[in-house]
Write a structure and sequence with these properties.
heterodimer; A: 338 residues; alpha/beta; Rossmann fold; 6-stranded parallel beta sheet; 11 helices; 8 strands; 42% helix; B: 463 residues; OB fold (Dihydrolipoamide Acetyltransferase, E2P); 3 domains; elongated
């Protein structure tokens, strides 16, 4: 199946389009700010930016309903913002402060929100894949119709536990959408240098799992594919694989000199395939918004991100007593459906 | 408004770098994302992108400059038609210290909480209350039956509890621990898995995050090495990494340690491995009543629990109280035999050597106090310290390898908190420092034996 890009007259309302624009722009501006704070030494360690891949999470969130779960790898800021987590809380976790989602104890790669059904933020490549299937196992066991979006990259797609999970997810018809965010590079190794498989989603066929390739630079194509996958899961047909073709503009992490690809390659993607520009064009060409209205949105987003950055600087470092808390618990915080 | 462009930190360890090359000149217009300079870090040469848009007003640090500290202003960006402020770059030296995060707190808490938290008290005060009311009727039960009953009782009690693993359902358990559970609870709650330890351990962790109470059986803990990442990185650490939001109530259980003649890959004891990890609770019962009461506690516990059983003990019978519902708390050791001459501390199958040795030593007038730790994390160090204060001598007994053993840790606690009460060096008895051999005679030599316990006691009592 070839990648597709939505052409003229998308079946989507003006409000929806504006919402996607806003959500994607929030991720981009947030990540740019995070890169800036990293440069200033306010964020430490590993920091993996999502710039370029925004349409993937925004499109799939558009296909989700309340109660659906999501779990991903360490390139997780976009997923958190897209599911409605507070930008200030995320940024303050990046700066390692008390106001962060994990009280500063998790950092960029390890954040969670039970309220928004976001189950991490996992630092070990591929480990979130069986965890995602386990979340789906719980939902099936509890008899609700929730679906779990389990995100992983093209690099993780070569981990053994992914295929152990495919096997069991199909065996037990678990309601899980496996989302392969194929951004073409596993750190510095291109997909072609890591596998001879012509496509990653087709590997699901070995386990009887259906799937397809999706244009990840087109939020509407992602949404349409997400709706199809979710319907498949909710109908009790088991897992579904979406290989979403996307591209990260920045390095693997902040310390990546990105010598494995040319500047031209990155520039070409930015100029010709940028997901935010695409929605911007749809809005302007369809006369759903004026330049001035979009400028207004840009301004609003900038303010939200600046507020988040301010909060992340002002929030104090965690109290030293926090070193010794949250190692064991007396009771498990439960989700409402458990 | 003019914006200072600061020397960026481009890796987790970068403190200064070389401004290798400017790719823009004063007066050039730049947009966000434009590469404006090349910077050599401690790792590589990196392209440095502009964050804001504007005109390059002034370059403050010339290309080729080495040792430029992170956060030093390196250029000034101005808006169209704006002039570069007079004082631009004058605070260059200060910027690095001023703009970084508040001063880091001291490494240890105000009380210097670095010592093992449970052992700080001067006078050890172990919990010596009875595990069940005196006069409770008892009956004989094997460890196998006790474990089976514990799971069945907890599955009746809590609908969220389910069991998964290899051959747990239709085969009725590779060691028959799960016999009958499929019949009573059905395939929804007693789930046969393919042979895929890493995968199903991770699915168990996800199910626990999702609100269930999984019991994950490993056919033996030797196979759980395949699943180690999920157990340690996902199950044990997530509560901490989430700032307390995400608990992982899960039990990983199965036989551990040497069975008989199954050689190196099927005979390892993981007690020391798991008890190393903050976030895990580690249980290793010996008798049937403990196996039952501790497994029930494990299933109810909101934290990840490693429950280490032993194949040789499965068939042994012990007295078990005839109570509808009893549990044994974690962190409470059991004194199997009181004595005044030496303290023997063990757990799991090591207890059978310790108890047998104590019987034989008593014939020669040496009275050993035998303590069964029952749980390794949390560990009842108070019980050990109280006993050492009485006997002044200590021998630990376990089947695992000698280096970094559980006994080594116990020794360190005793050295720190009961040094003045010791009349002899502590001896740690362990399995030998070799992979388990297959040959019957060599296997016997590799394991710890009753005779070795007796010999060690004679050494520390000088008798």
């Amino acid at each position: 199946m070839a990648a597709r890009r939505t052409t003229k007259k998308p079946n989507v309302s003006k409000e929806e389009l504006l919402g996607y624009y806003r959500d994607m722009l929030l991720i981009r501006r947030f990540e740019e700010k995070a890169g800036q704070l990293y440069g200033m030494g306010l964020i430490g360690g590993f920091c993996h930016l999502y710039i370029g891949q925004e349409a993937v999470v925004v499109g799939l969130e558009a296909a989700a309903k309340e109660g659906d779960k999501r779990v991903t790898s360490y390139r997780d800021h976009g997923h958190m913002l897209a599911c409605g987590m507070d930008p200030g809380g995320v940024m303050a976790e990046l700066t390692g402060r008390e106001g962060g989602y994990s009280k500063g104890k998790g950092g960029s790669m390890h954040m969670f929100s039970r309220e928004k059904h976001f189950y991490g933020g996992h630092g070990i490549v591929g480990a979130q894949v069986p965890i995602g299937a386990g979340l789906a196992f719980a939902d099936k066991y509890l008899g609700n119709d929730n679906v779990t979006f389990t995100y992983f990259g093209d690099g993780a797609a070569n981990q053994g536990q992914v295929y152990e999970t495919y096997n069991m997810a199909m065996l037990w018809s678990l309601p899980v959408v496996f989302v392969i965010e194929n951004n073409k590079y596993a750190m510095g190794t291109s997909v072609q240098r890591a596998t001879k498989s012509p496509s990653l989603w087709e590997r699901g066929a070995a386990y009887g799992i259906a799937g397809e390739e999706v244009d990840g630079m087109d939020v509407l194509a992602v949404k349409a594919a997400g709706e199809k996958a979710v319907a498949h899961c909710r109908a009790g047909k088991g897992p579904y694989i979406l290989e979403v073709m996307t591209y990260r503009y920045r390095g693997h992490s902040m310390s990546d000199p990105a010598k494995y690809r040319t500047r031209d390659e990155v520039q070409k993607m930015r100029e010709e395939r940028d997901a935010i520009e695409h929605v911007r064009e749809l809005l302007l060409q369809g006369k759903h918004a004026t330049e001035d209205e979009l400028k207004g949105i840009d301004k609003d987003i900038k303010a939200v991100v600046n507020d988040a950055a301010e909060f992340s600087k002002e929030s104090p470092e965690p109290a030293v007593e926090e070193l010794w808390t949250d190692i064991y618990t007396d009771s498990v915080p439960q989700t409402e459906d458990a | 408004m003019a914006t200072e462009i600061l020397m960026p930190a481009l890796s987790p360890t970068m403190e200064e770098g070389t401004l290798a090359k400017w790719l823009v000149r004063e007066g050039d217009t730049v947009s966000a994302g434009d590469v404006i300079a090349e910077i050599e870090t401690d790792k590589a040469t990196m392209e440095f992108e502009a964050v804001d848009e504007g005109t390059m007003g002034k370059i403050l640090v010339a290309e080729g400059s080495e040792g430029v500290k992170v956060n030093t202003p390196i250029a000034v960006l101005v808006e169209e038609g704006e002039d570069v402020p007079e004082d631009a770059g004058q605070d260059a030296g200060q910027a690095a210290t001023e703009s970084s995060a508040p001063a880091p707190a001291t490494q240890n808490g105000p009380e210097g909480k670095v010592a093992p938290p449970a052992t700080a008290a001067d006078a050890p005060a172990p919990d010596t209350s009875p595990d069940w009311p005196e006069g409770t009727a008892m009956s004989k039960q094997t460890v196998r039956e006790a474990l089976n009953a514990a799971m069945a009782e907890e599955m009746r009690r809590d609908e969220r509890v389910f069991l998964m693993g290899e051959e747990v359902a239709e085969y009725q358990g590779a060691y028959k621990i799960t016999q009958g559970l499929l019949d009573e609870f059905g395939a929804r709650r007693v789930v046969d898995t393919p042979i895929t330890e890493h995968g199903f351990a991770g699915i168990g962790v996800g199910a626990a995050f999702g609100g269930l109470r999984p019991i994950v059986e490993f056919m033996t803990f030797n196979f759980a090495m395949q699943a180690m990442d999920q157990i340690i990185n996902s199950a044990a650490k997530t509560l901490y990494m989430s700032g307390g939001q995400m608990g992982c109530p899960i039990v990983f259980r199965g036989p551990n340690g040497a069975a008989a003649r199954v050689a190196a890959q099927h005979s390892q004891c993981y007690a020391a491995w798991y008890s190393h990890i903050p976030g895990l609770k580690v249980v290793m019962p010996y008798g049937a009543a403990d196996a039952k009461g501790l497994l029930k506690s494990a299933i109810r516990d909101p934290n990840p629990v490693i429950f280490l059983e032993n194949e040789i003990l499965y068939g042994r019978s012990f007295e078990v109280p005839d109570l509808d519902d009893f549990t044994i708390p974690f962190g409470k050791a059991k004194v199997w035999r009181e004595g005044s001459d030496v303290t023997l501390v063990s757990f799991g199958i090591g207890m059978s050597y310790a108890l047998e040795a104590a019987e034989k030593l008593a014939e020669d007038g040496i009275e050993a106090e035998v303590i069964d730790l029952r749980t390794l994390r949390p560990m009842d160090t108070d019980a050990i310290l109280a006993s050492v204060r009485k006997t002044n001598r200590l021998v630990t007994v376990e089947e695992g390898f000698p280096q970094s053993s559980v006994g080594n840790y116990i020794t360190s606690v005793v050295m720190e908190h009961a040094f003045d009460w010791l009349d002899a060096p502590v001896i740690n008895l362990t399995g030998k420092d070799v992979p388990m051999p297959y040959a019957a005679n060599l296997e016997k030599l590799a394991l710890v034996t009753t005779d070795e316990v007796i010999e060690a006691v004679r050494k520390v009592t000088y008798r």
